Amino acid sequence: MGTDRYPEVTQGQEAQQAPEDPADRRRYFRVEDHVLLEYRLLADSEREEIIKTLRDDNPSRHLIASSFANTSQQMQYVLHKVQEREPEIALYLQTLNEKLDLLARQLAMETTDFKDRTPRRVDISAAGLGFDAPEMIPADQLMDIKLMLFPSLDYIRAVGRVVRCGEAFDTPAGPAFKVAVNFDFVRDDDRELLVQHVIRTESSQLREERSS
Hints:
It is a single chain. The chain has a 6-stranded antiparallel beta barrel. 25% of the residues are buried. By secondary structure, the protein is an alpha+beta fold. It has a single domain (2-58, 114-211), classed as Thrombin, subunit H (Beta Barrel), CATH 2.40.10.220. The protein is 40% helix and 26% strand. The chain has 5 helices and 7 strands, in the order αβαααββββββα. Helix 3 runs antiparallel to helix 4 (87-110).
């Protein structure tokens, strides 16, 4: 991304020294991606209440959509094999798979409340993310963050803390600011989803680069 890269996204004090455990290092891998993203600025007094809400939330209500999406991805391998021998059956299965994708996305939207359903470009890791914001957000500002990852449709909600906000730059939509955010609180299961998502995305991007 060159000079357009977002400021470094780290995990607070832990990031001052590179972790030696390979499993832990995965938290700091980051990739450029497109996700659904919404955030709301929080007062410091709201932090504990939001964290309690996240701890008490039952994530299972979001799992149906992601399970559908996961099944759809698994079908791609089967489709490829069937295509070699029975192209008509493969076409039928592909149609079913597309219907499954549509149903999964509809379920995902019904179990979340994103107002803007247009994916946004971000730098993302299991430690935090960087994105363009239409407003300057001061360092140390807390925010309530909602993410939906593709193609898994995993839904993640976390408390973030701004570590850096760059100077304004022009975009077709008006002035924007590059914001770097650390996750101040994220559930362990959601952090693992982020780790796996970053690994899959990085692998996919590397395959595309090799094939181009």
